[in-house]
Write a sequence for this structure.
């Protein structure tokens, strides 16, 4: 169904405004879902990777590939293929991870009450059934992390419902922990590195220094466009070379690195092996 001109113009105007601020956007069709892949791209005929982890090497001009179609390019957003999609669109969506954001989607009053009692205040947007709490930082997306709570960041889209209210704050470890899956019984997750005997107080044990290092490591993994496995290993090696001998690293820090790697398609086994190999190389 084609939308009236004023509705179509309003949606496109909102999309262009978001794109100009660095937020990748895409149109949603009836049902508030992304447009399906075009005939060329169906069944991965264009060569896109499984599960839409990335959109390439497809160069389709239409808004294909769900969340991976999100763009900040105004020329693409106003191109003929996208204009045809906007005529049928019912809403604007955005890719939170592509904008460096994470959305905690709270579906009901109980979920909102939990968030208010558990999470730090941040920018809040009212939704049809609940609220979106938006944090600065990226992580793996995950649905149903607790009753009425979904996490939308990398490889996901969120409906744009307005700028919201409140000041955006950094993504807390409390939210990151929600998406961490229990390790397989056959291969447990790594433990924190013990402080060497005789070692004094760790010179790195300052929140700002350690947080900056972990955040940079997460970003390095998240922005890798190729050779992901090698990037994960080199990043683990860099983190361990700086913090591995003094006891700075906790299970929470290591889990954050594993979560970033798994969001790029790495398995828990690959992460564990890469971590073990990095420790072995450094003699830890």
């Amino acid at each position: 169904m084609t939308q009236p001109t004023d509705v179509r113009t309003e949606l496109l105007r909102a999309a262009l405004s978001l794109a100009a601020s660095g937020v990748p956007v895409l149109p949603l069709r009836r049902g508030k879902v992304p447009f399906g892949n075009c005939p060329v791209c169906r069944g991965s005929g264009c060569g896109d990777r499984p599960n839409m982890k990335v959109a390439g090497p497809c160069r389709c001009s239409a808004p294909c590939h769900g969340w991976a179609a999100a763009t900040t390019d105004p020329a693409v957003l106003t191109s003929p293929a996208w204009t045809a999609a906007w005529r049928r669109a019912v809403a604007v969506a955005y890719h939170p991870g592509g904008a460096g954001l994470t959305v905690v989607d709270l579906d009901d009053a109980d979920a909102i009450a939990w968030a208010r009692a558990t999470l730090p205040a941040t920018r809040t947007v009212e939704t049809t059934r609940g609220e979106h709490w938006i944090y600065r930082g990226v992580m793996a997306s995950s649905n149903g992390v607790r009753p009425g709570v979904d996490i939308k960041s990398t490889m996901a889209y969120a409906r744009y419902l307005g700028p919201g209210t409140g000041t955006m704050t950094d993504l807390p470890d409390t939210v990151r922990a929600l998406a961490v899956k229990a390790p397989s019984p056959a291969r447990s997750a790594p433990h924190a590195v013990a402080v060497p005997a005789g070692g004094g107080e760790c010179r790195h044990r300052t929140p700002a220094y350690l947080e900056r290092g972990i955040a940079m490591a997460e970003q390095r993994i998240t922005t890798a466009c190729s050779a992901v496995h090698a990037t994960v290993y080199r990043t683990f090696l860099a983190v361990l070379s700086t913090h591995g001998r003094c006891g700075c690293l906790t299970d929470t820090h290591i889990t954050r690195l594993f979560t970033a790697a798994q969001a790029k398609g790495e398995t828990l086994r690959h992460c564990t092996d890469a971590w073990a190999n990095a420790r072995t190389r450094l003699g830890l």
User: Anything to note?
Assistant: Residues 120 and 168 are 10 Å apart (CA to CA). The mean pLDDT is 82. The first strand starts at residue 25 and ends at 29. The first helix runs from residue 5 to 20.
